[in-house]
Amino acid sequence: MNHSTVTTRIGLLGTGPWAVATHAPALAAHPGVDFAGVWGRRPEAAQALAREHGVAVYEDADALFADCDAVAFALPPDVQAPLAVRAAAAGCHLLLDKPVATSVEGARAVAEAAERAGVASVVFFTLRFATETARWITQQAALDGWFSGRAQWYGSLFTPGAGRSPYAASPWRGEKGALWDVGPHALAVLAGVLGEVTALTAAAGPGDTAHLILRHASGASSTADLSFSAPPAAAGVEVSLLGEAGAAVMPGWGGALDAFGAAVDALLDAARTGVAHPCDARFGARITELLADAEAQLGRSDR
């Protein structure tokens, strides 16, 4: 494997809607990337996606690792984690999807594998990379005196009669719900401004709804309300902060394609400089620890 080439050879693992709409086109368009090829659990889908972008299709994931400097993942979290461990051992930098895993053991294994191999890692928390929201998070994190924050992420993925999304058919989302799918986004934004989460309390709401109360290292507190069971008229995303500077509301953001391109940039920078990105696999493991804690508390609740 040659890490001195002008462009970085990046392979893609995954062939679902997220890979088709975001990962593959972003890798194909990135000027610093040689899109090396695709591996997927469904060979026909892998062949179709590889053909669309004029890249090789791999029947064996380890063969893809051997041919690449880095790999990007668009797989269910507990399929992603063991493959990421193998990719790191093969010397590949890791562009991971969130959550890294839904088990603490699995997520920690990825972080430890990356550190052991000395490879860079970035977890694609979309709002930490989309231009508008990333800029806002940086600006707010530079201010002192935040008192509280609130993230509200209500969707209708599981609501009867709501429009069908291609992600509604995802087995892991059906099992794990909004807590594990959009919870990582909410926690990544709140932690990015208010600091590491040091305590968490969870309570269940209607359907898969989860309400989280968080305490941060800065002394601030925040809440996160997460659901895929909301009425369509109530669906929406909002993040706001209150503090000495007054109120701040997170702006809207563009599509995931540009955000993923920025995540690729972040991985390339981390690989070149050796400086860990704030959203590395270790941070991803911490998010999994928090979500697992919340899930355990919700399991003890009367639902």
Descriptive overview:
The chain has 303 residues and is an alpha/beta fold. The protein folds into two domains: 8-127 and 257-279, Rossmann fold (3-Layer(aba) Sandwich); 131-253, Dihydrodipicolinate Reductase, domain 2. It is 43% helix and 24% strand. The chain contains ten helices and twelve strands. It is globular and about 50 Å long.
Give a short synopsis of this structure.
The protein has 10 helices and 12 strands.
Distance between the termini: 52 Å
Q: Could you give me the name of the CATH homologous superfamily of the largest domain?
A: NAD(P)-binding Rossmann-like Domain
Strand order of the largest sheet: 3-2-1-4-5-6
Strand runs, count:
12
Give me the strand/helix succession: EHEHEHEHEHEHEHHEEEEEHH
Spans of at least 5 consecutive residues whose pLDDT stays below 50 are 1-5
Query: What characterizes the major β-sheet?
Result: 6 strands, parallel
At CATH level 2, the architecture of the largest domain is 3-Layer(aba) Sandwich
* Range of strand content: 15-25%
CATH topology description of the largest domain:
Rossmann fold
Could you give the topology of this structure?
Layout: E1 8-13, H1 17-29, E2 33-39, H2 43-53, E3 56-58, H3 61-67, E4 70-73, H4 77-89, E5 93-97, H5 104-117, E6 121-124, H6 131-141, E7 146-154, H7 171-181, H8 183-194, E8 197-204, E9 210-216, E10 221-227, E11 236-243, E12 246-249, H9 256-273, H10 281-299
Parallel strand pairs: 1-2, 1-4, 2-3, 4-5, 5-6, 7-10
Antiparallel strand pairs: 7-11, 8-9, 9-10, 11-12
